[in-house]
Amino acid sequence: MHACGDNFYGRMLFDYSQVEKDELIHRATRQGRVLSLETYLNQYPIANINQQYEYGRSRWTLLIAACFYKHENIVRMLLHRFKPDINAVGDVKLDFVHDIMYGVSPLWVAVAVGHFGIVKLLVEEGNANINHLSVTRSSPLRAASYIGRLDIARYLISHGADIRLVRDGNYTNLMLSAYREHTHMVKYFLDELYCDPNEYDQDGRTPLHYGIDGGSFDVVELLLKRGAKNISHNITSPLLWAALDAREDLVDAFENYYLSDLEWIEAREILGASYANIESKNYNLNKAIEHIKIAYKWRIEKNLPKIFSSIQSIEAYNYFQECQTLEEFNQILSQSHNRLHIESLLIQERILGQKNKRYRHAIRFYGALLADTHQYDTSLRLWLYELDLRRQHKINFDKWHLRSFVHMFAEMIINHVDIISEKAILEILKALNDELSNSRNNDHNLLTLFYLITIISQISDKQKILPSMMDIYRILVMFIRTCYTTIENSQYWTLLHLSMMTGLPCVNDNHIMALCKYPCHKTIGLLLKCGANVDAIDSERNTPLHLIAQRKHDIENVLFIINLLCDIAGAHPDCVNNQGQTPLEVASNIHVKEHLREKIGVSQLKCLCARFIRQRKIIFQNYRLPLYLVNFIEKH
Question: What family does the entry list (predicted)?
């Protein structure tokens, strides 16, 4: 009865539009209705059996869709009857992978969903390319490694899968299996395919690193038994990697594998420091004390005192220095937990080095925790120290890195902190200058600068008498003179344009959104004070006055800003945009219109002359006029 119903709808297929026919065909494939699909394809052959269909976040052929939904009968029917391109690729969103997999073949999809029958069908009857690579160089064998299907991996290898194919960054299948905690796959790669247990990716990480990240004791133990070494290629060694995760069991797995006394001692010190790392899911101060004390006892037994390349007094750490003896360490235990946290950071800096990402992240996280408890001064000192390490060692910023400082400044103002460190603001401005000068994350960093300028405008009344505020003004003048604009939206808005707008992206940051509301007359005033061009134009030749004139709400604030622009900064109210409109002509509110008419009523003679030239369409470009005069006429 079901088949008859399907055939009835098939006979009526000519009644449907092309879009509806495509959806019927696609739906039948997804739902596994092989008789319906075959009928549809017979009675209304599609021009291209390899055409792409969109479904959710996926974009695929019928063959890939059938593989994804594990419909072996449809795959067989398509291969036998309609001869699709066996290697035609698509983009697939798998349930167990966060990202979309771009450019994957039907075979890759069949492996990824773990359907051995379809895999055999595609290889043996379709002659699928067993080494086809996706956009990110993921092969079918890699998909088998990800899901831990040893049977499929063996089959692919027996039919010519190339074990040497690796994903971008030399991320091998052995590394992936180690990370995914597939002990049986790791054993297969090592014992039967003779993969190198000490291979490393472009970042210097070995299978041991990935096994530790995965957290499987069995995988780590197996790798060590098969010859994996505690070696590092410009990266933290696997032993210290395990210690940084506060995984005592993984550290102990290295016990019988030819480590020096110093390696063991430093691993125990890092293990203790990691237990004191508040971010760690294994946070345990008692464990931290226990392991640091063990390390001190081993140093005494082996006569290996700590060696410091240089002893620095770091303001961020309250000028505390790392303890050198067990007696000194016992003395600090009577102090606050903060002292032990600082000790853990000092230990990490000595052993891991200032450039180490995990160490720098620990500084940031501890600073964030202090900010959450309103210990802003200490928090800022820690963050500024980490910022200084980045700049000192030329380490690029994540684009959210500097924005987080602005978040903290906004939070401080909201929580009524009277004084914000001018030094902190100045350092962030310098870092933003470095980033913008090198065109890194231009629009994001420009918005960060913009929000910071708003914060400066809110605190400048209280702190303007301090000499350090003059340094801030000087660097702001430099920013203004550089004439940075947005570029990603092709609007080329200046900072002054931005200050006229509403709805700027604040990345859902509640503190910034609560404090930085636009249009903001304080921000505008500070920008004008620092020399912002009041008649700057965007890609539509709109001046800031054009933008503020279009506002329909908060009219009292709008009129105040128009006065700022025209009376204080000398904006020309008769400048025209690409549509030949003045600010008056784009305004919709009657009070704004009247206010702008008053401003135009006192136009200077040169403005009247420029408008006369433009309105009469007098050709002036052929005369040898100074560039500033040409620009002035064009604005009118």
Answer: Belongs to the fem-1 family.
Res. 3: pLDDT tops 50:
no
How far, in Å, CA of 8 to CA of 246, rounded?
65
E strand map for 467-566: none
| pTM greater than 0.85 (yes/no) | no
Closest Cα partner for 529 from 576, 464, 443? 464
User: Domain residues of the chain, as ranges?
Assistant: 13-165, 236-391, 606-635
Closest CA to 541 of 574, 575, 577, 571: 577
What per-residue confidence (pLDDT) applies to 512? 87
As its CATH architecture, domain 13-165 has Alpha Horseshoe (1.25)
Kindly report the number of other CB atoms within 10 A of residue 505's CB atom: 10
Q: For residues 486 and 490, what is the distance between their CA atoms, to the nearest angstrom?
A: 7
Q: Contact 538/488 with Cβ under 8 angstroms?
A: no
| Average pLDDT, integer, range 129-153 | 97
Tokens 């001064």 label which residue?
A: 377
Q: pLDDT tens digit string along 248-300?
A: 999 999 998 889 999 999 999 999 999 998 777 888 999 999 999 999 999 99
Do 75 and 118 meet the contact criterion of CB atoms below 8 Å apart? yes
Contact between 132 and 142 under an 8 Å Cβ cutoff? The reply is: no
Using an 8 Å Cβ cutoff, are 43 and 51 in contact?
A: no
Instruction: Read off the tokens for 98.
Output: 């966060």
